[in-house]
Hints:
This is DUF4282 domain-containing protein. By secondary structure, the chain is mainly α.
Amino acid sequence: MTNPPGYPQDPSQQPYGQQPQSGGYQGGQYQQQPAAGYTQPAPSRTGFFGALFDFSFREFITARIIKVVYILWLIMIAIGFLFGLISAIAMMGDDDFGFLGVPMLIGTFVGTAISVLLSRIVLELLIVVFRISEDLNAIRKRGGM
């Protein structure tokens, strides 16, 4: 879809990586200017520890360590599953409360599955928030906001 002359440019038609020119009507297309008073901070390429001790919170480390957090959380869920499994089997061998072992075993499986699912959902939502932030920063740098 092309825009007639004199109408704003369709951002999807702009080549990848090309920044808009300084605003105004140029070459039959309207170019947007950055918001008044807005100065974009220079992107810093700090390391992990530099971002960790960035007290202005301009660098995010959560997106960098989310995979490690997820793996550690899955390991903790697996340890909890093993304890629940051992407890359920031990309870089945008990003469007084053996009938509670089967529901406990089922609860261990269901609880573990729900824990993995909810963990994944929460971490994905967290990543979505960070990606929204990155996309908004890209739009702001391009001068669209």
